[in-house]
Amino acid sequence: GIAKRKITVPVAQVEGELVFRPQHGEIPGTLSFFENGTRQVYDVPEWMYREAAVLNQSVANPVASLIGGLNGISRAAFTTFSPAFTVANMFNDILPAMVRGGVLPTETARRLVLSFKSLESDPLMQAYRLSGAYQGRFYGKDAAAIAKEVGASGGTVIGKHFNLKKAVLDAIPNLGEKGEQASRQAVFEKNLNKTLPNWKIMTPEEIAVTPQARKAAADAVEATINFGRGGYLIRSANPFVIFLNTSMEGTKLPFRTLRDSAQSRWTLAGVGAGVAGITAYNMSYPEYFDVPDRVRWGSVMIMLPSTKTDLNGKPVPKYLTIITNTREWAAFFAPLTY
């Protein structure tokens, strides 16, 4: 692997001699943990050490924690608990999953429907999580937060737990999580079908430990915005500027796609040709230019025959919005609809 165990040679010491050691933190260029009471130290690449240091600083910095908490209120109101954002985000994630992951919208829709099944009854979802694909996400709680909610501590065994009040309060975030994961699960399943065709006769645990599943998990995380990525400077400033890291990673996603995959380049070209054709069709309606600019330029929409007129007798625009906001892909599609 890229991390190597650091061999330390024990040195004999005089009984009662004072030995000074750092009270906290890591030796520069290393990461460590305790295993059976013994500290294990690993030499790691510079970027890995730097990322771990940023994580520790962001957690330990009281100013960043305070401002991040205040920004979290706005973030929750605008996104996590917003029905409009939740639904729009589902449709928006279909586009990068199709271009970058090669899955059709119908495949994402199928996984969305299946995601309403329980985790216990969906082997693919189990393998998906066990292989490491359930990370770098916007929605969803970690294991510690879930355990705290149900009051589990000290080795408590948790069975099925249902709280009606929490279910109502978390209805929108849970829907957002299912929508976010549907695109990634579709990519994960497609890659398994291609590289591990006999996965359906394997247990989730057997699937998860295969190199094919690990690669499929990595590709699934990268199919949409990976919220776990980000450079040192941006992640340090992220608590102070709402959605900063998300915006930066979203901006880079299309260009990484063009760099990494020839198939994605052809898919993007095909989608662009489709958008150009739809725009030419939309322009055949004179009222198309009365559609608000933010809708015409920033979304994928289709004009429908108008059934109403305004006070001046002009047709009132009637249209169907397929993708409400192309977001990170607007750099490619907005010029076609401008």
Describe the structure.
With 338 residues, the chain is mainly alpha-helical. Helix content is 55%, strand content 7%. It is built from 15 helices and 5 strands. A 3-stranded antiparallel beta sheet has the order 1-3-2, with no helix packed on it. Strands 4-5 form a two-stranded antiparallel ribbon. Strand 2 (30-35) and strand 3 form a beta hairpin.
User: How many helix segments?
Assistant: 15
The largest β sheet comes out as: 3 strands, antiparallel
Mean pLDDT: 82
The helix/strand series, from N terminus to C terminus, equals EEEHHHHHHHHHHHHHHEEH
Which strand order does the major sheet show?
1-3-2
Oligomer: single chain
Rg computed from alpha carbons, rounded to a whole number of angstroms: 25 Å
Characterize the overall form: globular
Q: How many DSSP E strands?
A: 5
Helix-and-strand structural type: mainly alpha
Notable characteristics:
single chain, 5 strands, mainly alpha, 338 residues, three-stranded antiparallel β-sheet, 15 helices
Give the structure's gist in a few sentences.
The chain is 55% helix and 7% strand. The chain has 338 residues and is mainly α.
Secondary-structure blueprint of this entry?
Elements: E1 4-5, E2 30-35, E3 38-43, H1 46-60, H2 62-80, H3 83-101, H4 105-114, H5 123-130, H6 143-149, H7 164-169, H8 171-195, H9 204-208, H10 211-223, H11 232-237, H12 244-260, H13 262-282, H14 293-298, E4 300-304, E5 318-323, H15 330-337
